[in-house]
Amino acid sequence: MAKDVTLRQLRYFAAAARTGQFSMAATDEHVSQSAITNAVLALESTLGTRLFERLPQGVELTPDGQDFYHHARHVLDSVRDAIHKPRFRAHDLRGTVRIAASYTVLGYFLPELFARFRASYPDVEIDLRDVDRPGIEAAVLDGEVDLGVALLSNVERISRFGHQVLIRSRRQLWVAPTHPLAQLSTPSLKDIAQHPYILLTVDEGEQSTLRYWAKKRMTPNIAFRTSSLEALRGLVAYGFGVTVLSDMVFRPWSLEGKRIEARPVLDAIPQMDAGMLWRKDAQLSAPALAMQQFLIHACGS
């Protein structure tokens, strides 16, 4: 049975599970929707079980699908780590790497990567600090931390730092399946402005959002402001409003289990770049250099 499963099938399945939509998975993987569908059907045939519930607005993992998703992610991550491991792994590396990270990347990007790093470097301690973006910049420049991980699109005068983008995440419309905008394949900002908008304020979300709206000479119809992503998900899922946010933090359901859909926006809006900062003149310690190189390779940069 195992010989019939390919890494490509696992990758396409994982993309569908992550996004909750075959069409969105196809966009992420730069393939046709039929390629995603065929990969999932082949896996279901091989495993003899349904991996997804097919819903009118997308797909949802079955209990067997959820279990298989965890295994698939482990396989894909292990393969990537194994490919890059010979370049920078040292079995006897010890010490501490000091990292400052902001709310969004700490909550939705770094934990899994840190777990993988620890598997390769069990004797390296991670001294992790939860800091806002200005605090990260100051800590890096003052040498209080080795690396900062933040939304690079918000960093002021980024040329002051050594830096590396780790993930470029597009922004899309989040909407409840029954919302009028869900009927449009590519709504514009003008379309979105006609409906109540839920504005995320954490990690300078309000400033970055209003900045690209202002460049289009428009303003969203702000109904609610919140610093909580889970509150925002619930409000969107129950139809109280819509929002435009990054795929990095997208989940196709709220805490209550209500569906959320994503739609590409017709207008060109900036993607969200998350990445590392370090002091230009700093000579990184061996543990810090290992973390820096691990994150670069693990994220495919």
Keywords:
301 residues, five-stranded mixed beta sheet, D-Maltodextrin-Binding Protein, domain 2, 3 domains, single chain, alpha/beta, Arc Repressor Mutant, subunit A, 11 helices
Descriptive overview:
- Belongs to the LysR transcriptional regulatory family.
- InterPro entries: LysR_HTH_N, LysR_subst-bd, WH-like_DNA-bd_sf, WH_DNA-bd_sf.
- This is LysR family transcriptional regulator.
- It holds the Pfam family HTH_1.
- It comes from Trinickia terrae.
- The chain is of the alpha/beta class and 301 residues long.
- It folds into three domains: 84 residues, Winged helix-like DNA-binding domain superfamily/Winged helix DNA-binding domain (Arc Repressor Mutant, subunit A, Orthogonal Bundle), CATH 1.10.10; 103 residues, 3-Layer(aba) Sandwich (D-Maltodextrin-Binding Protein, domain 2); 100 residues, D-Maltodextrin-Binding Protein, domain 2, CATH 3.40.190.
- It contains eleven helices and twelve strands.
- The strands form four sheets. A five-stranded mixed beta sheet has the order 4-3-5-12-6, sandwiched between helices. A three-stranded antiparallel beta sheet has the order 10-7-11.
- Helix 9 links the parallel strand 8 and strand 9.
- Helix 1 crosses helix 2, helix 1 crosses helix 4 and helix 4 packs across helix 11.
- The chain is globular, with a radius of gyration of 20 Å.
- The mean pLDDT is 89.
